[in-house]
Amino acid sequence: MRRGLLALVLLCGIGPPTGDLSGAESAKRRLPALTKASNLEKCEDCRSSLRRRVAVMPVTLEVAPEIQVSRSALAEGIQRRLRELLSSHEDLRALEPVELGVASGPGRGNAVTGNALIREPRRTPAQAEVFLTVSDLKVSTEELKETSLATEQATREAVDLENRSSSLSAEASRRESQIEGAARAAYFAAAGDVNKAAAIECIGVAAQGFTCGGDWNCINRSQQQIRDCQNSVRAKHAQWGSSAADAERSRLTSEVMGIRADSESLRARAETLRRDASVNAEAESRLTRRIRAGVTIGWRVVDSRWSFPIEGGSSEGAAVREDKGLSKATPFGETSSSTRSRDEVVVNAAVLAALEKIAGQVSDAMGRVPPRVKVVNVEPRLIAINAGSSLGAAVGDTFGLVGRGKVMTDPDTGLPLEAPPVPVGKFRIIQVAENLSMLEVIVPAGQLKRGDELEWVGVYGPRPTRTAPASAPQER
User: Fold this and answer.
1) Pair 92, 54: CB distance under 8 Å
2) What is the reported pLDDT for 424?
3) In this predicted structure, what is the pLDDT of residue 223?
4) Where is the domain boundary, 363, 394, 410?
5) Does the pLDDT value for residue 288 go beyond 90?
């Protein structure tokens, strides 16, 4: 069996053969001598650089039917993108679906303890599994119409002309109401005091009546002559007043007509500008759609061996997109400008914002959990594990065997309670390849077998040797 382990060491690239030595002899020579536990001490300040292996499980979507997104594409995109984000963290490695295979399915069954069932550990290469639930996904759209500068300028000029036309129309109405009053004033100004004018102009006729003496016929003729004279004077002055009133009325009416003509001309120009602006707007303006999306994603990290919850929470993401013209896109793909904006574009942006937060939170949660590895081969004092330099393994990393925790019973319900297992034994890395490491047994932990899980317990290194102080030189 020792020779089989050395062959495995060679296949994994731990030290190439040198000189004329055979492969087994070369590997045997390159393996360091096994160390006694008493010669090692723990580095209290050292931290593990091993990357924890995690699996992103299928995503659960709780999306309203009116949200126009492809459910399957969105779920697959979220799962793929979270794997990429998790793998970008130095302490994590998200496993691809091909690495999980069928091992990430249900557990191997249950073991009976007393009258209760205790769950058996599941076989999966992932130390933890991440579950996501997308909920409270909201999308809203508003449309904004953008016009060209020429169209906006024409519209402003039309509004200005309409305001000026309204002012002129109001001025014409005001002057119309004053025409009759001005005509009456002109009438009286032209006619003057009719009675006074009649008395002055007819004084000669009235003087002739004084010569009639007591002749009543003469007196009657004289009075009739006075009345005819006064009527003639009144008629003459009334004609003057009427002519003046007509002239004033005609003048004012002509002014009002001119004002109304100017008002109609301005209104016609405004209508022309508005019509031209409308035509230009259809040809030059663009419709802008502003799409807003918000999402809440719940997450849980579960220990994949025992299904213990490690941590959980929720994160929110929001995004706003303005699309001018047409646009089409597929979830988590490239976007091209076209005639219509698709909900997927802004939904993806909001989801990505939430996933970036979740990746950081999962990394923080896993950073508080010791990394675990699995045994791939066992020799009397050497074992091989499935973690090498590609996962950050380094000489000195020390592990303990993860067994079953102590099973107790709840005093109230009678159900079994299993305490988290405590790693036992110590197995220290002495040589590292890309995907495999060799460990020496420092403290035995019973019978080990292929597939057993080891948990990181610290970094152990050689205990510094103490040299005796130099003796003082003797005086001669």
Assistant:
1) yes
2) 87
3) 80
4) 363
5) no
Helix 179-191 vs helix 216-284: crossing angle, to nearest 10: 150
Closest CA to 398 of 383, 376, 410, 416: 383
Backbone angles phi, psi at 34, to 5 degrees: -65, 145
Name the pLDDT band for 51 (thresholds 50, 70, 90). very high
CB 284 within 8 A of CB 214: no
Cα 386-387-393 angle, rounded to 5 deg: 155
Structure tokens at 208: 């002739």
Q: Place 10 in a pLDDT band, splitting at 50, 70 and 90.
A: very low
Residue that has been written with the tokens 């007393």 in this structure? 114
Helix axes 343-367, 71-87, angle to 10 degrees: 40
CATH of the domain at 84: 3.30.160.150
340: number of Cβ within 10 Å: 11
For tokens 């950050």, the residue is 392
Residues 248, 182 share a domain: yes
| In a shared domain, residues 268 and 167 | yes
Q: Per residue in 190-217, is it b (16+ CB within 10 Å) or e — as a string?
A: bbeebeebbeeebeebeeeeeeeeeeee
**Beta-strand relationship, 382-385 and 437-443:** antiparallel
- Mapped onto helix, strand or coil, the DSSP state of residue 110 is strand
Whether this prediction's pTM lies above 0.90 is answered by no
Which class for 57: exposed (0-12), middle (13-18), buried (19 or more C-beta within 10 A)?
middle
The residue type of 162 is E
